[in-house]
Fold:
Amino acid sequence: MKVSLPYVGYSVDDGGTASNQHFLMMTATITIPDGNQASMHAMVTAQKQIQEFVVAAEARLNDVDDMMLHDFVVEQLRDLATQYNQQLKLFTARYANH
Structure:
């Protein structure tokens, strides 16, 4: 799954001062394993990838002044977490029945 989120970036002038706010895309390829078949290693790897992506997105989210953009990014992060958690439930259910 390729995840792309917009965030606010700034151009830096010759004096090292940030100016000219513009939007950039933060993109990552995150594989959310099928919880019915995934190994423990695959689930842990996906969890770490998602956590790193969320932390990076949250750091950039602090600079977003546009509430619609802010809410969109937050909703996308929640959706990503929901997708992983659905697979995690399937994964843990496999082992709970043993």
